[in-house]
Amino acid sequence: MEVGPGIPRRCPCGAATVVLTSKTKDNPGRQFYRCGVVFGENHVFKWADDAVLEEIEALAVK
Ligand SMILES: [Zn+2]
């Protein structure tokens, strides 16, 4: 199962994604989507602003 462009609603592992807020020094307060179960390789991690941008682009193409 592949995660397409846009907001990732489900991780390839089958878990629903969650929205969290970054607390790192580089990206403070930036929101991201993450696999709701496992944080690691082969699981969803995507910045929310990137995902929203992709979602808008996908809509514009249709
Ligand atoms: Zn996962």
TrEMBL record:
<dbReference type="GO" id="GO:0008270">
    <property type="term" value="F:zinc ion binding"/>
</dbReference>
<dbReference type="InterPro" id="IPR010666">
    <property type="entry name" value="Znf_GRF"/>
</dbReference>
<feature type="domain" description="GRF-type">
    <location>
        <begin position="11"/>
        <end position="51"/>
    </location>
</feature>
<keyword id="KW-0863">Zinc-finger</keyword>
<keyword id="KW-0479">Metal-binding</keyword>
<protein>
    <recommendedName>
        <fullName>GRF-type domain-containing protein</fullName>
    </recommendedName>
</protein>
<keyword id="KW-0862">Zinc</keyword>
<dbReference type="Pfam" id="PF06839">
    <property type="entry name" value="Zn_ribbon_GRF"/>
</dbReference>
